[in-house]
From TrEMBL:
Xref: PROSITE patterns: CN_HYDROLASE
CDD domains in alphabetical order: nitrilase (cd07197)
Species classification: Bacteria, Bacillati, Actinomycetota, Actinomycetes, Mycobacteriales
A Pfam family of this chain: CN_hydrolase
Top-level division of the source organism's lineage: Bacteria
Gene3D superfamilies referenced in this protein's UniProt entry, alphabetically: Carbon-nitrogen hydrolase
Protein known as: Carbon-nitrogen hydrolase family protein
GO molecular function, one term: hydrolase activity
């Protein structure tokens, strides 16, 4: 398949969906000219994220959109040949989900609803219930949103479904309860990088991690977008401010090379994992 140019964005996106679409139009035009094949945008790119994890219903919630509506159709028309993962609040009848779609100029290729919900997020969103990989022009891909990547089973399920690329879209804030004076010293900043590297290495896949920046309500977002290789090595990274992490990688060749001797997916001993399917709180 050859070399793929992957870009993961760190940037601030707020409540104004129209403004976000205008901003993305310029970003897409530039990145298509730069030969970017895959762009992973943050969670909540369209409509912004909640402003308080413990009390998300204090203040206005992000405006939900229809995944078949004009906003995603507009992004498809902007994307052209580029594959794009984008996050938003999804409307489904009376429910709203923290969701992401993967799309190109040909239409929507895949969809994900955030499964794992931290703190009080369940007060603002319903929870998704599945992890599924799908085919794209850059290879088989799966998506995670925010807290999903804290759980190894999430990325492992995608890898077992054939994903060689994981798009991890985040609106990941600094620690809410133990805030550090400097962002690089923040506990969540360390964990954010650790999870990205671990999920790539343990599944021997390429991972593109985006994140929001700036402040929404009481939340201060970390940035730290990155592209991680299948050995867990960071190939490109931004810091706390907005920016773009870009890496050129032959995905198929690098995944095959990582799995040449040690094949983590094939060498699992599922017969010994006796308690994986037990309900929480049981022994």
């Amino acid at each position: 398949m050859g070399t793929t140019r992957i870009a993961a964005l760190a940037g601030h996106f707020g409540r104004d969906i129209g403004r976000a679409l205008e901003k993305l139009d310029g970003i897409f035009e530039r990145l298509v000219q730069d030969g970017v094949d895959l762009l992973v945008l943050p969670d909540a790119t369209l409509g912004g994220y909640i402003g308080d994890l413990r009390n998300p219903t204090v203040g206005p919630l992000p405006e939900p959109i229809d995944p078949d509506g004009p906003e995603l159709r507009m992004l498809c028309s902007m994307a052209g040949p580029m594959t794009v993962c984008v996050g938003y609040a999804e409307r489904d009848g009376e429910l709203r989900y923290n969701a992401a779609s993967c799309l190109t100029g040909d239409g929507v290729l895949g969809h994900h609803r955030k499964v794992h919900q931290p703190a009080g997020e369940h007060l603002a969103y319903a929870a998704g219930d599945t992890f599924t990989a799908f085919d794209t022009p850059v290879g088989r891909l799966g998506m995670l949103i925010d807290y999903d990547k804290t759980f190894p089973e999430s990325a492992r399920t995608l890898a077992l479904d054939g994903a060689q690329i994981i798009g991890a879209l985040s609106a990941w804030p600094a620690s809410v309860t133990d805030r550090a004076s400097r962002m690089p010293n923040d506990r969540q900043a360390r964990l954010f990088d650790l999870y990205d590297m671990a999920r790539a290495a343990e599944n021997q896949v390429v991972l593109a991690s985006s994140n929001q920046t700036g402040v929404t309500g009481s939340l201060r977002f970390l940035g730290q977008a990155k592209v991680v290789g299948p050995g867990g090595d960071i190939l490109a990274k931004t810091w706390s401010k907005g920016g773009l992490a870009v890496a050129d990688i032959d995905i198929e060749r690098e995944v095959e090379r990582a799995r040449r001797t040690l094949r983590h997916l094939d060498e699992r001993r599922v017969d010994t994992y006796h308690n994986l399917l037990r309900e929480k709180g049981t022994r």
